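Here is one chain, start to finish.
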Amino acid sequence: MNQARISLPAYYLHQLVDTLSVLDVDTAAWLQDHHLQVTQFGEGFVDFAFDDFRHLLEDAVQRSQEPGLGLLVGASLQAHTHGILGYAAMNSTHLLQGLELLERFISLRTDLVRIERHTHDGQVQVHFIEAADLGVIRRHILQAIMLAIHNIVGLISLGSPLAAVVFPFAAGPEAALARDLFACPIHYDQNWAGFIVRSEALAQALPMSDPAMFQEAARLCQQEFDKRQQKAGLSQKITRLLLQKQGHFPSLTVMARLHHMSARTLHRRLLTEGTSYRAILDEVRQHLADEYLKTGKLTQQEIAYALGYNDSANFRRALRRWRLATTATSP
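Its structure:
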């Protein structure tokens, strides 16, 4: 949500550079035009302003003229490339345990999406939910991340347990490549992104399982997660808390109390991060409204109530404002 900045593992960026090199892109010139050098990536995490990252990836697609760039990068991200998270998943006892692990700790690898599991009409669905409006890079980001997770799931299952892959956009010229890489049916133009998992595959024992190794790796994931939470900015912590509340949003005073500070101190701290409590709440409401509208299951009045609006007219005004802002910032 508050995606003014994002953080990505340097290895993912190196894979993007390697993929572009294979596609005969002058990667040094590409990076130089964005005031970057590959030596800046190092081996840890690379911090970007989100708009800078979006422009970087958009330019990469333009220079490569490869509509399947996200798929090619995702194909290179195998289970071992995800550090302790991939290692923990490889030692899962059953697929459900692996999916729960990925759902809980995907933020260790990327904060561009989060994962949620749902059961719908007897089907288990794994939803990849955008943490911010990805705009023109949406297709490439979703395809890269979903294929990377698909690679983990396929490895630990020694085959694909997926009944289908679902995308919220139309089939493009890379559709045949997507079918080959995901090796299952793909449904386009849907109102969500993710996987449909065969329910009988969830509880099957996994051949690579090592419960003791899983517990130790999961403990290390939790340890890394806790460290990142401590380092996360106050605005990010508030965003996560508001997403958990989903409609039961606390006031500024209550939110300040939850963070052991006064309302004035909270306001001042958020100003130093370039935002405010009202702005964060507005972004959260916009994100949740988009998700509710995509499902098509709630009326605007019901969505307004779910988002804490006492008057549906206020929600309609906010909806118009969000749409105008999105139109104004679209390239």
